[in-house]
Specification:
Blueprint lengths: L4 H33 L3 H20 L5 H17 L2
Helix pairs in contact: 1-2, 2-3
Length: 84
């Protein structure tokens, strides 16, 4: 157990931040997965801006790396362009 008041507070903050990050990371992964499994091009095109926004927000607050967000956006755009 922590011995200092500040370390007890730090533990509380880290747990709160961890849960927050996990929630948004999982939401992001679900959005990406939903877009990848979509077979209708019109639906995918409509969904892409919202997924792109989520990825940009995750990169902005360092939940994911900015290069990972760019790679995902690129791959999703390529996926959409391949749809019939």
């Amino acid at each position: 157990m922590a011995n200092h008041k500040s370390s007890v507070k730090r533990i509380r903050q880290e747990e709160k931040r961890r849960l927050h990050n996990r929630y948004y990371a999982k939401t992001m992964r679900n959005a990406v997965k939903k877009l990848r499994t979509t077979t209708d091009k019109a639906e995918a095109v409509a969904m892409y801006p919202s997924v792109q926004k989520i990825l940009d927000k995750m990169a902005k607050v360092n939940i994911i790396h900015k290069n990972k967000a760019a790679n995902l956006k690129s791959k999703l755009a390529a996926h959409i362009s391949k749809l019939a």
